[in-house]
Amino acid sequence: MSALDLWVLAAFTAGTLWLGLSRTVGQTTVAEYFTGGRRAPWTLAMASIVATETSTVTLVSLPGFAFGSDLTFLQLALGYLVGRILVTLFFIPRYFNEQYLTAYQVLTDRFGQQVGQLTSALFLSTRNLADGFRLFATGLVLGAALLTLPGSSRLTTWLSPTIDPATTVLLCAVLLLGIVTIAYTYFGGISAVLWTDLLQLCVYLIGSLAAAVILFRLIPGGWGEIVEVGKAAGRLRLFDFSADLNRSYTFWSGLIGGACLTVSTHGTDQLIVQRYLSCRGPRDASKALLWSGLVVFCQFLLFLVIGVLLYVYYTGYSPDSLEMLTVNGTLQTDRIFPTFIVTELPSGLRGLMIAAIFAAAMSTLSSSLNASASATVADFYMPATGGRRSDKHYLRIAKRSTVLWGCVQILTACIAIRISTRVVDEVLGISSFTNGLILGAFVLGLFGYRRSKTPLVGIAVGSVSVLALRIFTNVSWQWYVLVGGFATAAAGYCVARVFERPANDQ
To answer: What global pTM score does this model have?
Structure first.
């Protein structure tokens, strides 16, 4: 890290704080704090959706995926497009029937408070656990950068003489990232989240494009060599029509599993639904969602092409560097792009790329904090108080909830420092586990059932089904949402056939 890199990183952090803190005007109610008065342009909501579903893992892992495999990840992006169409047809219109603040208030109106709070609790627990690990992963990048600064070892020894320097710097990095994200989310609410998401989207896309251009120039043969080497190594394969359910990133698991995953995350997850509720109406929300699918597809393509470029460059012109990234005979592909950033990018651009990694993380974390606060207040606190408190009181509780969940994520990230990295994969598996259950409950609501035992029994059966799938089979995680959603909806339907009939309004 040079002085210029530090200035770039500091400017990005200061700009994010300034932009977030400048969006505090006009927030007198929780509706303003959580939906921005429903005045967000659809283009802003679209940028926020893209930035929110792009984390540090995406920016770092997708180039590594293409480096070690091929372009078949794009098949999952095709499923994302199909899923978005289904969400615009069946879910978004219902969120604008009432002045909802969360996705789970729809289930509360349909099935009662017990079901609404259960699904909201599932969201809160899995979302904040997963994002705590994302904060930890981003802290690794910042910690590694800070360790290269002159005098860092003396400073870390002074801060904590009993802990090794790497761990001390990592703790400081996690705290810094967490506090900055909490600060602008606390003061600015959803408006700050939307505008900072736009800034962060621009930063990581510009940084990634610049890195791709520099990487391209390092390959003397240009596109001809890239295509020739990539094709010979199988890195340009796009489709895999295998019907093996145990394999991930096939055409069928990507199209069907990706569509189901998107319907659950973009149709029932408060993290994304909150962007729709900030729009002027269902038409704008649908436009934001559909266009975000195209942007995400192009973005994934960019990251994967960077991976192919990295493969051609390192295998042809810097093979010795790969030996440093091999642990126990296995090449750590997720470290390829960060290594290129640190060793090959010029000063200034290196700082921009590190800022881009922070941008990808902060956009997801700030969205998570605001969505968690909205679920806490709207699904739990307001019903508990009967909605009889003043607007200022609920706004104060909303801000305190933001800080609370921020502290939970920081604590989770600190605990993750002492835990194997395999736990990160387990956390992502838990997210897929719960997304299907919540989706199944929404499907029962779409069919018009109203008794609370219908989705409760369905969720219980769905939980057992997905758990059995994970323990006793090797089926790819991409099918978990489909299995969980189908089992939940099917079990609920069987119960409903005995105890009730669909309501006439559906």
So the answer is: 0.89
Sequence-ordered list of residues with C-beta below 8 angstroms from that of 253, at least 6 positions apart, any chain: 75, 76, 245, 247, 476, 478, 479
Tokens 């930890």 label which residue? 136
Write the CB contacts of 389 (distance below 8 Å, at least 6 apart in sequence). none
AA identity, residue 344: E
pLDDT of 334 above 80: no
What is the residue-wise DSSP string for 200-221? HHHHHHHHHHHHHHHHHHTSTT
**In a 3-state reduction of DSSP, which class is residue 326?**
strand
| Selection from 409, 377, 383 nearest residue 396 by Cα | 377
User: Which residue type does 422 have?
Assistant: R
Domains of the chain and CATH, by start? 3-25+40-419 (1.20.1730.10), 422-506 (no CATH)
Give the C-alpha distances (Å, rounded to integers) separating 489 from 258, 378, 449, 486. 19, 26, 11, 5
From CA 405, how far away is CA 240, in angstroms rounded? 41
Q: Which pLDDT belongs to residue 503?
A: 57
Distance of CA 397 to the CA centre of its chain: 25
Confidence of residue 506 (pLDDT cuts 50, 70, 90): very low
Sequence-ordered alpha helix ranges (H) in 233-331:
251-252, 258-267, 270-277, 282-317, 319-324
- Inter-CA distances, 443 with 274, 393, 437, 457, Å: 19, 35, 10, 14
DSSP E strands in 301-422: the ranges are 326-327, 330-331
Dist. CA 18–CA 12, nearest whole Å = 10
Overall residue count recorded for the chain in this entry: 506
Assigned token pair, 331? 């090449």
DSSP letter (8 states) at residue 327: E
